Amino acid sequence: MAIAEHMSPLVVRNRRPAGHPVAVAAPLFVLLALLAAFSGSPVAAAEDSSPVLIELTLVAGAQEKGAVCLDGSPPAYHLQRGFGSGSQSWIVFLQGGAWCGTTESCSTRKMTEHGSSKFMEPTAFEGILRDKQPQNPDFYNWNKVFVRYCDGASFSGDAEGEAEDGTKLYFRGLRIWEAVVDELMGKGMDTAKQALLAGCSAGGLSTLLHCDNFRARFPQEVSIKCLPDGGFFLDAKDLSGERFMRSVFDGVVQLQNVSKVLPKDCLAKKGPTECFFPAELIKSISTPTFIVNSEYDYWQIQNVVAPVGSYPGDTWSSCRDNIGNCSSKQMDVLHGFRWKLIHELKAAECKRDWGLFIDSCFNHCQTQFSSSWHSPTSPRLGNKTIAEAVGDWYLGRRKGAMKQIDCKYPCNPTCGIAYCLTMLSCQFGGNGSE
Fold first, then answer.
1. What is the CATH number of domain 51-429?
2. What is the distance between the alpha carbons of residues 185 and 179, in angstroms, rounded to a whole number?
3. In what order do the strands lie in the sheet with 57-58?
4. How far from the centroid of its chain's Cα atoms is residue 301's Cα?
5. pLDDT range class, residue 46, cuts 50, 70, 90
6. 305 near 337, Cβ under 8 Å?
7. Which among 6, 25, 161, 171 could bridge 256 via Cys, Cβ 3.0 to 4.6 Å?
8. Helix (H, G, I), strand (E, B), or coil: what is residue 378?
9. Residue 322: left (phi > 0), alpha (psi -120 to 50), or beta?
10. Does 48 have pLDDT greater than 80?
11. Can you tell me whether residue 122 is helix, strand or coil?
12. Which residues are catalytic?
C-alpha cells in the first residue's frame, strides 16, 4: 500500500497546468504578498532573497556496493559548503516522501523522483538549510546536505524484489544510508566539530532509525544530535476502527526487510512492525534528540485518523483538509489523537538532554519552510520560534532542554499565517505526491 506524501517543498518545480497560463504565478504572488505583509518587507525584497538552486550529486561507486534506488539508479544528495565559523559544522537532512510496502506501489514509485535519481532535479534550500542568517540564525553557515529519498522504506531496507514489468526492484535504503555517510565523511565531515542529523516526515522517521548509528561514526568529543520533524507517526485506530498506519508499516517491514536497523531490545519483546514506530524507537535512542511535531499534524489527520474510505461519504472531507472546518464532534476525535501523541512522547520527556517543540498548528514538516522555521509568521512556544528553540537546545544557551507542548487547538494565535504560507508554498512550489 502506498501513501501519497503531500509535501516535498524542497524540490523546485515550475509546473503550469495546460490551459491555465497564470495558475502558478498568481498564487506565488499571493504568497510573497503575505510574506511581505507580515515581515514589513516589500515583495521585491522577498524575490531578491530567493535561495539559489543546489545541484544534484550522484554517490560515486554506489552501484558497485548495491546502494541503489528502487530502479537501480545511483542515490543522490545536494551539498552546500559551509563557511566562516560554520566550516566544520554539518547538517545532514533526510528527505521525506511516504513509503511503499507492496510490489505494485514500489513499481509505480520507481518511475518518480522518490524511486529513481533519473527524475531528480536541482533543489532550493529553505528553512533549516537556508544560507542567510536572518532566516536561519544558528545554522546558516554550516555545511548542509539534503539526502534524496528513493528507497521507499525510510533508508532502512535491504532486499530485492521484482516489479510488475518483470524488472528488478531494489530495496536498498540501508546501503544508501551507509554509502552517503561514507562519501560525506570523505568530503570533510570526518573532521566535523559538531553535526546534526535531521529529516522531515518519512525522513524524520529515518532520523530516529539512524540517530545512534550517526553518533557512532564520530569521536565521542564531537557534538552530535538529532532532529526528527513531523516524523512521530502513531499506531492509532482510524475512523473505521482499523489500524491503517500499522498495515502500511507492516507491508514496508515485510517487503523491504528493515529488521537490521531496528533496536535489538525492542525486537526481543515485540515484532518488527511495532518496533518501526517512533514510540518504540525513542526508548532505545541514547543520542540527544529534539522532536518537532504538530499535535494536529495534517498528514496524519489525513492518512492515520481519517484516511479515504474510513468514513461514509464526504463527512470528513472538509475537516481533514482544513481543521478550521471541523465540527465539535470531529474536534473531539482530533483532541483524542493529540492526547495519544502526548502520551507516547512521555519517554522523550523523561530524557534529560532531549527537547520537544510540539505545537498545535495544522502543519507538517515545519523545519523545511522559512515561514514556519524562523520568520515573523513562525509558530511560537514560550515566545520562541522553532529555529530559536532548536538553536538554544543544540548550542546549550539555556539551562535544561526546552520541552514545550502546546495547548489544544485553536489556542495558539501564532499558528494561522504559517499554516497558510506553508500550504501555498507546498501547492505551488512543488508537490511530492505519488
1. 3.40.50.1820
2. 10
3. 57-58, 76-80, 143-147, 89-94, 194-200, 223-229, 290-294, 355-359, 403-405
4. 16
5. very low
6. yes
7. 171
8. coil
9. beta
10. no
11. coil
12. 201, 297, 364
